[in-house]
Design a protein that fits this description.
mainly beta, Thrombin, subunit H, six-stranded antiparallel β-barrel, six-stranded antiparallel barrel, 16 strands, globular
């Protein structure tokens, strides 16, 4: 489903943390030891009132820049944007709960000053600008932001989906990419499909999809087909290049973020147009 919290959600997963470490293979005698791959944890993860999110930075972000929080467009406090709707530079006072690396402790509250960008057209993304800089957050909480990957993710990549709302980490692989995915009135492009294991639920909306090899964010978790229905709310369908529709009951999906990464300009502004492929607001 569109994975925000809708009404009462069964809370059996609350407080449960599943940390999946990369396996450590035994090196052959005399062979150089492989570098240890760090475990994905809750560093940079935030919880929203109805969703999950992450503290992120782009390749050109500076420590002095006001920090950004990434989540889904459908997690907006004012409700879901309509098909074709794009929201830019809207004042916001939204609060985010910053977690410690274990996910068991709340370090404090981060406050937004504005909604930098949000849409549910082509993708499902919202970017909030915070009052504090990356440097201030690091100094006060000893937490660094997650890095956004500028590259298209690869099929078969090992990923972790880190939910700040449920304080839970799901781990699986990228099963493939969906040419077009439709859910109710919305259509998304080049969506990420997960292998079994990432059985995300309500409240995991906006969780970053972290490549376990690079530890960079390659997407945002956003939906899944719950009942096997066709292209309906909580039941997205896949549409290929020839228009063939496929329904995969129980399969979950996310949206890529490299397109957003390529739109972050000076001072962490989302700069639309030019090489930025994100949808722009309608004019006139």
């Amino acid at each position: 489903m569109i994975r925000r919290l809708a009404g009462a959600v069964v809370a059996t997963a609350a407080g449960v943390t599943v940390l999946t470490a990369a396996g450590t293979a035994q090196a052959a005698p005399g062979a150089p030891a492989a570098p240890e791959r760090r475990q994905v944890d809750f560093t940079g993860i935030v919880a929203l009132s109805n969703c999950s999110g992450s503290l992120v930075r782009g390749p050109r972000s500076q420590d002095s820049d006001r920090a950004l929080v990434l989540t889904n467009g459908h997690c907006l406090e004012g409700g879901m944007p309509g098909a074709g709707e794009v929201v830019v530079d809207k004042p916001s006072t939204r609060a985010f709960t910053l977690l410690d690396p274990t996910g068991r402790k709340e370090l404090g509250t981060l406050k937004a000053t504005r909604l930098e960008y949000a849409t549910m057209t082509d993708t499902d993304v919202a970017v909030y600008r915070l009052a504090d800089s990356y440097a201030k957050i690091r100094a006060e909480h000893k937490i660094d932001a997650l890095k956004l990957s500028p590259a298209h993710p690869r099929e078969g990549a090992e990923i972790s989906i880190v939910s700040g709302y449920w304080k839970k980490i799901y781990s699986c692989k990228i099963d493939g990419f969906v040419h077009r995915m439709r859910e109710a009135d919305w259509t998304w492009k080049d969506s990420i499909r997960y292998t079994p294991g990432c059985d995300t639920i309500g409240g995991t909306s906006g969780s970053p999809i972290v490549d376990r090899n690079t530890r960079q964010v390659v997407g945002i978790n956003n939906t899944g087909n719950e009942e096997g229905k066709r292209c309906a709310m909580n039941n997205p369908c896949e549409v290929d290049e020839e228009g063939k529709v496929t329904v995969r009951k129980g399969v979950n999906y996310g949206q890529q973020t490299y397109t957003l990464t390529r739109c972050l300009g000076e001072d962490n502004d989302v700069v639309l147009g030019g090489t930025c492929a994100l949808p722009r607001p309608a004019t006139g």
